[in-house]
Amino acid sequence: MPDFLNLAQRIEGIARVAPAGYETIVKTIAPQSDYWPLPWYLRRFQHLGWYEKLPEDPFAPIVVVSAKLNARLDEKSDKKWIMAGYSELRPGNFFELYVELELWKKYVETLPRSSE
Q: 87: which of 12, 37, 57, 99 is 20 to 30 A away, CA to CA?
C-alpha cells in the first residue's frame, strides 16, 4: 500500500476517536501545494486548512506538514503535540503527522494489541 494511503487511514482513525469526528480541524502545510493527493483522501473532513508556509498558529488537533519546513511542532508545543508519523506522499516528498497528545492517546487505545 502506498505510504500516503497509510497516512490517510491513520488520520481517518484519529477522526473516529476525536470528539468532533469529521469536523475535527486538520491543517496541511506544504510549499507549492505539494500535498496532492491528500485533498482527495481527506475530503470527508469539514474543516481543512491548506497552507503553503507555517501559519502564525500552526496548531490544530491534526496537522500534516511537509518535512521540508522543519516544523518541529512537538518541540514548539512543549510536547502537547507529538509527531505521530512520517510518510512519503510521492518519491522524495515526505510529510510529518502531528497530533494533539490527548487525542493521540485516545487513538492508540483503539489499536489492536499484540497477544505476546
A: 57
The confidence band for 43, taking pLDDT boundaries of 50, 70 and 90, is: very high
User: Of 22, 63, 27, which is closest to residue 43 (Cα–Cα)?
Assistant: 22
The pLDDT tens digits of the residues spanning 7-18 come to: 999 999 999 999
Cell readout for 62 is 491534526
CATH hierarchy code of domain 3-103? 3.40.190
Report domain extents, the chain: 3-103
Q: Which amino acid is at 81?
A: W
DSSP states of 27-71 as a string?
EEE-GGGTTTTHHHHTTT-SEEEEESS--SS---SEEEEEGGG--
CA dist list (Å): 11 to 34, 37, 61, 79, 81: 18, 14, 11, 19, 15
Distance separating alpha carbons of residues 2 and 90, to the nearest angstrom: 9
| Nearest C-alpha neighbor of 33 from the set 66, 67, 70 | 66
Query: Given this model, what pLDDT does residue 1 score?
Result: 62
